[in-house]
Amino acid sequence: MCGIAGLYCRDERVDLGRLHHMQRLMRHRGPHDEGAVLIDRSGAVITMGGPDTPREAFASGLRFAPGRQDGAVRDASFQIGLAHRRLAIVDLGPTGHQPMCDGEGRLWITYNGEIYNHVELRDELKRGGATFVGTSDTEVILAAYRAWGADCLSRLNGMFAFALWDGGSQKLFCARDRLGVKPFYYQWDGSRFAFASEPRALVLTQPQRIQARLAAVRDLVALDWVDHDTHTFFDGLVSLAPGHSLTLGRDGLSIRRWWTLDPDARATGSTAEWEARFRDLFTDAVRIRLRADVEVGACLSGGTDSSAVVTTAARQLERPMHAFTVAYEEGPAFDERPFMRSVIEASGATSHLVVPDGRDFWTVFDRIVESQAEPTAGPGVYSQWKVMDLAHGSGLRVLLDGQGGDEILAGYFRYLPLRLRDLLATGDVGSFVRDLGGVAQRLGLVHTFALAFEPWLPAALVRPLRRAFGQGKDRVLGEDLRGREIESPGPPAGWGTAVRAQQVFDATQRLLPSLLRYEDRNSMAFGIETRLPFLDYRVVEFAFSLPDEQKLSGTTTKSILRRALADRIPQRVLERRDKMGFETPTDLWLRGREAGELRRRLLTPGALHAWVNPDAMRERLAEFAAGRNLGLQVWRWLSLEAWAREYVVADPRVIERAQPDYTHPGLHLNYEQVQQRIEQETVGAA
Question: Is 506 part of any known ligand binding site?
């Protein structure tokens, strides 16, 4: 996992100063190496390193080594600039340096991620005549593109975001993995294209001040939505959608979907065969995610998903796995140590535990806001940050995690009344009656009935129910957001059942995109790569092809996981029905010792008051202080206020025109010096 950035200019030269600062702002994503390449319109190339580039990379003699110049540079009109920050995990030496080119120097790539099946692909490509100088998966992508073109994407099993310059076609080809585990943000104005792994690298380096995108602010305040489409909270900054590729050249920019879930896919076989198939796929997903030239650990939360990951990985390792966990002293609801101990005992893993007391809450909160660069929807990011900080202190660079299990295996409780709805729709009244009591006991009778019977309820009743469950968020909209149409997108049609449609919705829009964004920023803030076995595309496609009853049984969620891995996961964990992510006692802190700072941040006049009505917010804060369950809404206001202060109001651009740190034989490069050198060489040649 790394940080990538780049610039493409159709009619003018790229701004090396901006490219350098984009890269510098992502140093945390890749502390072990850095590099950049400039390519002019004739195909001439200049490669550069920097202070963090190892000496061995400069001395390697490889075609993509920093400090080389290939071809006669006739002018300083470089059309393309690619930059890279490296977190070294596979092929730790100079042969893994980036940007990297193929043997002919026609293809150049800057890439972030891991291709877990790179060993198998390498063997296949070798049989076709490909040669390799190292063992990195980056080199495999180049060879795969050379062999299969854009169709190579369907052969990659992994998480990735990359930009590849094809000197033959004079086009930039960019792609993002199927589920969007790795980020890719970009700006395009019709002639200039800029991309990076994080919004900060783009927002803080552009010449003009960027504006907040009010539609995104409205969606957060009124609907609790973040990351539900390709737009960001910054005007003019978008992300490449998961499972999509982008091609850019003289004829413009085009985007193509290269992967999507199939609504017509249906698994065939028996329950026993499905359990065996799931067990085999998941085990192999873990196996290939243990491939690394550094040690691999895991996050452990005490739920079934992370327990499945840790116990499965432990069976495949020759030494105990390091597992990193968080717990709190504020009560049993926030302390999962009994469940974690069961997993540690079953797996033989070495436990690492952090117990935050919240006294550093505001310091960590502000660091999270800076790192995320967009508002967050809930306090789970705090616990995750603490786990990554703990792992960083141990020196590990790679962690497995259970992210994605709830979305692909129907792990959220709200799927239960949707299952009741589907039973009614198919006329299975007996099963409906059998399961109704248990679901209502878990979620409440009104909530259960509202969700189960919504298609048959009159609109006049549905609207007030939605407002009630939404805690009146639309009534707190501030002046800048009033009068804007608020339309909450819903699950897609054509998926057969309400459960399947909601799962697809959660996995592609409602939940998973934001969770993946949080995980990427939190882990990369500490130079850690997280790998997600549940999001192996083979596991995902199989899970979505299963009948709903294989995932939901009565009041039991993720049923097939509990059955298929019953011999691995401790019984105490398997029987849990209350686990829902990293529980964090922020509500207690914000009602207690941090209440004063909470009110100061939210009630001091500022950008937030144009988006959230201060009088309504003051009323909600009083209700929150009295114990009403408004913690998520309060968190979102806090996150929005801090984001606006950090990125919108303060206008914190860090554009500098100082000399970049890039090095090339004999000189530090900026464009003026490049131009002078070219002019000198041209005069000398004449």
Answer: no
